Amino acid sequence: MMDILQIVLSESFWAASLRIATPLIFGVLGALLCERAGVLNLGIEGIFVVGAMSGWMAVWLGAGLWGGVLVAAFAGALFGLIHAILTVPLGLSQHVSGLGVTLFATSASYFAYRTALPNVTSPPRIEPFGALDIPILSDLPFLGPVLFQQTALTWLAILMVAIVWYVLNRTALGVAIKAVGDNPASIDAQGLSVYGLRIGAVVAGSALMALGGAFLTMSAFDAFFFGMVNGRGWICIALVIFASWRPGKALLGALLFGAFDALQVRLQTEVGAFLPSQVFLAAPFVLSIIALVIAARSADYPRALLTPWFKGQR
Amino acid sequence: MIADKVLSLEGLSKRFGSVVANDNVSLELYRGEILALLGENGAGKTTLMNMLFGHYLPDSGSVHVAGEKGALRPLALGHPQAALEAGIGMVHQHFTLAENLSAFDNILLGSEPLSRLRRDRSTGRAKIDQIMSDSGLRADLDIPVGRMSVGERQRVEILKALYRDVSILVLDEPTAVLTPQEADTLFENIGAMAKDGLSVIFISHKLREVLAFSHRIAVLRHGTKVGEIASADATERTIARMMVGAETPETKRESHEPGAPVLRLENVSVAGRSRRDSLSDADLTVRRHEILGVAGVSGNGQSALAGIISGLMPLSKGAMVIDNATINGHDPLTMIRAGVGRIPEDRHHDGIVGSMSVAENMVIERLDDPEIQTRGLLKRDAIQAHAEKLARDYDVRGPGVEANARLLSGGNIQKMILARVFERSPKLILANQPTRGLDMGAAAEVARRLLEARSRGAAIILISEDLDEILSLSDRIMVIHDGELVEADTRDRETLGLMMAGEAA
Amino acid sequence: MIRIEPRDAPSRYWSIGLPILSGVIALALAGIPLAFAGADITIAFGEMFKGVFGSVFAFTEMLTRATPLIFTGLAAALAFRARLWNIGAEGQLYLGAMAAVAIGSGAIDAPALVLVPLIIAFGCAAGAAGMAVPAALKTRFGADEVVTTLLLNFVILIFLQYMLEGPLKDPMGLGWPQSPPILDQGMLPPLIERMRVHSGLVIALICAVAAHFVLARTVWGFRLRAVGENAAAARHAGIPVNRTVMSVAIVSGALAGMAGVSEVAGLKGYLTADLSPGFGFSGIVVAMLAGLSPLGVVAAALFIASVFVGADSMSRAMGVSSFLADLVVSMSLLCVLIGGFFARFRLTRIQTAGAGT
What we know:
The complex is a heterotrimer of chains A (314), B (505) and C (357). Chain A is mostly helical. Helices cover 70% and strands 0% of the residues of chain A.
């Protein structure tokens, strides 16, 4: 018990929690934006892969780190656009289209990577984002290492939480996005474009998801591996329900998740002798399922989620 | 009073697939006029107005609207935005409100540029306050629409239209969800706004309110305009004849002495998700040879009452007794086996599986019947023959019993459900809004079948929002309001209306 | 301007022509990545064709590859027909495979006539259990089965890792994470001498025909379809919706488990963590290409297997990444989706009446 307390009070634990949470913050925000507009985006897992691969590849080809971030966001937006066109104007099954986009995005990324780098034994590395050392603040006890030695992408993620919150709750655009996810007819009757809003939300949300992937290759690691996204996208889909589609709660959910994950890694060294390591590996997934089961009962889904809307049809 | 023409529809036509919804319809509207658009369900009233408002693009025809200086100008069709800019507002029968937003946000939706980073809330609020005091329509602006009553939602819808500075207001069946008194108040407000220069078109199939509140009546039948008449010159008889093309058949009822009680609800409460689908301490008895009409504005607990009798909702208190046997457990199968026939309120949602065949839909309630299956294997020939017989007996018309049920028209879907329910000679029938959305012919058929079942000895609970239907079919009337069920000792419209509004009888 | 209009009656030819067209278009689209990889497109397609139809061996290899796809395709098709989103066939496949080696690698020594059915029964039961959990979470708690089945895939794969390093590890395996081999009498017999195609294919075909019959002709199939098409109406009509969903989940999971049994007891003989190159997910593509029809699943599985086998052989010959196969498979899913739209709707150009845009 003392050990756990010691872990939880350590700086490195909280720093790790925030680091682990960062891609999830991007992912949950992206999924939240899509779902608030009424579109489930199961393309998320593949879009993570696209973001990770394209961002890394751009940097490797010499684009610079922020150039890589832009490329990742753009690539994510492009695959999001495929999902948006299939599900919004064409009104096809959001489940199947999303899975299709995941399969397509993943295989396209893998193929592109393999084609660009046919015969490498160890994946080439890039110089990733470094800790954003802020003078004075970084030297603060506890807060310094936890908050002010994160990379720029972590800060971008937190900034995005604030931006998405502001847009949804303080702007006319946010009101319209929430309305189109609740009752598209309310948007059409007021002369706004249902398709425009939904496609826009899916594209923007997908760009956010891709940033989550980019964080993996450009901040958490310095190279691209097959299978590196490893279900993070699906976890985000569970977390967004847990977060009841609110940006603040999304941040909280991602952080809680990061903390649990960081804790299990540390516990593994403590009690690893008694429990097989796979218990710890499986913990994040089991945890997501449990979170989902707890949240499911009271989940207040956007009313028009999964429901296509066709103009001028009855 | 009537002078300037503000709107002119010329030769509008619209097809949906092979169905002609509107054929060459022309219509004019003048400043300050209240025009009633009258017609049966499916006559094309809503389609016509949806074309005016840009929801549907007409196949042919044009629309002209008066501009600021009064000259008629062509309207770009197929764009709600263009209609809004031309000063046309529409209040749809199915509200177009986002329930997760406040009334305020719903009203402002679309009037603010989406690219703006900040919202100017105070100007909007001042304008709405002004409109509320001018029109007499009031609503709480800050609670989510999802928590509002139907009447309040409708006021929000109208405020939403007025906020866009409309000069022409279209109301699609505005009183369908209101008590008679609420409807009267609404029309008083509309009348006052018309005096101030607002032009109004309202869609209705209720002859009484059309005569009482409009200046002029245009009648649609089968997608074409069959006539226009000044309301002062019209009588219920003349316009009813225009509407259906013939005299409406009177429903004949034989007199029967009610027999033994079939269903008794004793002190029953149902805890729904909201007050709208809850029931508190309800007592009710229906006897053989008796139709009990349950009148009320929708959303007052009818779905809870229907829910327990269909077996879809559990009782939270009290007892349900059928033929002196208490029903334990709730599920549709229990009720079907207890001899209850159920006609669901939303026939598309609860009544049919649209992509299964008519024949399959006709046996869906009796899959355990050895006539239909042996040891889990379906008897396809028997199912087919059964369906053909029922289709003949109940006059279900369509592309055949092998075709998907969703290809049937609304009236034929209802006849299919009637066939499925009545062939088993149920001792208790729950008919929940059985004629909603049907044309007069199909509605008359439903009424005839219900009366026939009554003669046979069935006990019938008829839930309806249509007071005329309740009055013409019921032996006894109860009123439901806010989850409370009260016996009505009167057949007086005024008193029943007050009871429906929850005011002491 | 362009409007979307529903077709009066979707044509019958579409239902067969559409998947074929989608496959062809997806294959044609494969020219883009091939050009990107710098390969000669005609030669590459020639190699792909040869890889499937070039020899009897090649063709039987394709059949071998199609076998698990028929099982996972049926698992997806039946579940999707009931609107139960089983995206966890990959995990259920491994559960089936684990059960098969647990029973078949020496725990029980019995003649083939006893052991083979036993292995199949346990494999199916394990797969069924793997889908029963998310289905129960759905019916009891309302937890979305899409997410739970997706996540359970990872849990099961990690569990597999544990089993292969622990309880199911082959003591003779030189330290590799692999299971001991299934006893010879526990193996599904091969269909042709010296070829790898095995009797799992026959079982798969029987399952497809049985599924077709059950859907069309039995009360259970009736209930499944009713629940899938309109759960509210099914419930109103007295059909036990939750029980139907649970039973569909069990059948769907069992079929996915059977894919694992067939791979491990029909082909590989022992279990490793790379038994399935994503058969569970490809099964979804197969089911969608098949229009969720059980007989269509067979045809779609043959097509997808051809893509895999052909692309593999092409990539060996030409040095193009074998991820091309996954790319074509995913594109054919997107194509069939888009094609499904055009089967139901058409775009019409409409002259705008009056003035304006």
